[in-house]
Amino acid sequence: MSEEEKSDNEMLTEALENGRIRFFQASRGSASGKTGHEDTALFADNLMTLQECAILLGEKLGMHAVASTTVYEKSETIGFCFDPNSNPQNPRVAGGIVNRRMPFREFNRSIRDFIDR
């Protein structure tokens, strides 16, 4: 195991033990995070599903697209927000996964704070 993978695993373990959000960014079909390839792939899979649901919901409401989505799956909170500072022609999203149920407002604010860093 490389030092980078070891560091990623330590970050994931620490986040899981402390119930902290693992943050990710995505753009142009590629996602990145600091908690390892498997965790980033998990986020990317969830992101694709959430984006499809957001598009369908936005169309149903006549809004084109929904800017953020949060879901609760078992004991996890998963979601994303479009980065309002990104180029609309090449939008970026930021999101997170946390291994506990977290109130929507707190979760969404955490992602927005991550975007604004």
Structure explained in plain terms:
The protein is of the alpha+beta class and 117 residues long. The chain has a single domain (3-116), classed as Beta-Lactamase, CATH 3.30.450. It is built from three helices and five strands. It has a five-stranded antiparallel β-sheet, with helices on both faces. Strand 3 (68-73) and strand 4 form a beta hairpin. It is globular. The model has no long low-confidence stretch (mean pLDDT 89).
The major sheet is characterized as: 5 strands, antiparallel
- Which structural class do the helices and strands define? alpha+beta
Helix content: 40-55%
Question: What coarse outline follows from CA principal-axis ratios?
Answer: globular
| Strand line-up of the largest beta sheet | 2-1-5-4-3
Question: What is the strand tally?
Answer: 5
CATH architecture: 2-Layer Sandwich
* Rg over C-alpha atoms, rounded to the nearest angstrom: 14 Å
Report the average pLDDT across residues: 89
As a percent range, the share of strand residues is: 15-25%
How far do the termini sit from each other? Answer: 31 Å
CATH superfamily: Dynein light chain 2a, cytoplasmic
The CATH topology corresponds to Beta-Lactamase
How many helix segments? 3
Give the total of domains: 1
Key structural traits:
globular, 117 residues, alpha+beta, Beta-Lactamase, single chain, 3 helices
Brief summary:
This protein has 117 residues and is α+β, with helices and mostly antiparallel strands. The protein contains three helices and five strands; from the N terminus they run H-E-E-H-E-E-E-H. 46% of the residues lie in helices and 25% in strands.
